[in-house]
Amino acid sequence: MENYLDALGKLKPEERWPQARRWIMAEELGFYEELREHEPLLRFPELTLASRFVDCDEILRRHDLFSVALYQPKQGDYFMAQDDTAQHWREKSIMRCVLDFEEVPRIRAFVADKAKSLLASGKGDFDAVKGLTRATPIALVQEWFGYVDSDADDLCAWSYWSQMDSFWNQPFDANPNSAQIIANSQAGAVALGKYMTSLVQKRSAELAAGVKLEDPVSRLILLARSGGLNNFPPERLIRNIGGLLIGAVETTSHAVCNVIEFFLGRPELLERARAAAGASDPTAFDGYAFEALRFRPAFPYFFRTVTAPTVLGRGLEYEQQFETGETVFALTHSAMFDESAFVNPEDFDPKRGITNSFHFGLGLHECLGRAVASVMIPEIVRQALLLPGLTVDPIDTQGGPVPESWRWRWPA
């Protein structure tokens, strides 16, 4: 069989990155192995792929040299589209405060109950994407985060188009539907803004009337009203309330689908995972979910923009210079199979731990909702694997990058 790099070399220059991207999206571990061994920094006219752990780690930690600037046209002045700014520092700190870490066990219990209820309502035949993997985080946003009087379908659409535009509609994606995605995202942002303005008005009136409210939306309003925060005007309040939705739904759905599909395709591992899922302590299953996610991550890479001349692979045989404005990919799916950082990376080891992984990003831009996602993802998967006699159709992505529908059946 012809190796990957030789196959790329036979293509026209403009065909090479699109082909490499197809291999990345198909999760070709053999492609990653070949890159790590022979071309740890593979350059295309559009971008460079960094495939070894040491380089991915540096790209994500060195926000001073590798910026999230490509998010700014998509996310405007949202703090996650900034690097080490005062606004990023302040608003991320505020959001971490309102997403109270002590509540994580209660959030897990909520997710478990909601997933069970959604599966019961499916009566043995339903679309798992609409009915479970998106519906559960949507319910968390509505019932726990405080998006009261909201429409689940609207929330799902607003979140979906924002993520499609930010993560899957970058210049290097060359998406033929780019203009429509941008239009959908912008229309969704306007509609979400109107809803959030109304929500803030409603919640503010309730709080002023003495109603005791404990959800993150209400906590944000109380903080803003307290007068103790500098530079947190109403528009910043609304922007950050919107972030609670955008970050919660689509990535969770994608990750959950990938993990469940991974186990269903491996009967021996599925048996072990189901045994762990049935343990009295639900956290006994978590290592199975996150080890499966190492094999099947929702995002196989993170992209960054070089902000000053620098090198990667410093002191190594493949050291290369990078100039301001270049795009680099931290190919983190590959990095999680790098023997320099993972013992026996080809083995499935549920005791491996996740602190050396890239499931929630790394460094300054680590996922804001890491604590919540670290229980929501495995708990949704756990409830699904406890279904007896589950059979599934192939996941339908409708030609896109994320699961759009997935039919499940089980004895009701």
Automatic annotation (TrEMBL):
Does the record carry Protease as a key word? no
Does Magnesium show up as a keyword for this record?
Answer: no
Coiled coil where? Answer: none
Q: Which UniProt keywords apply?
A: Heme, Iron, Metal-binding, Monooxygenase, Oxidoreductase
| Name of this protein | Cytochrome
Q: Which cofactor does it need?
A: heme
PROSITE patterns, alphabetized? CYTOCHROME_P450
- By its UniProt entry, which PANTHER family does this protein fall under? CYTOCHROME P450 YJIB-RELATED, P450, PUTATIVE (EUROFUNG)-RELATED
Q: Which organism is it from?
A: Methylocystis bryophila
- Check the record and name the Gene3D superfamilies matching this protein: Cytochrome P450
**Pfam families in alphabetical order:** p450
Which one of the record's GO molecular function terms can you name? heme binding
Per the similarity annotation, which family is this? Belongs to the cytochrome P450 family.
Known SUPFAM superfamilies for this protein?
A: Cytochrome P450
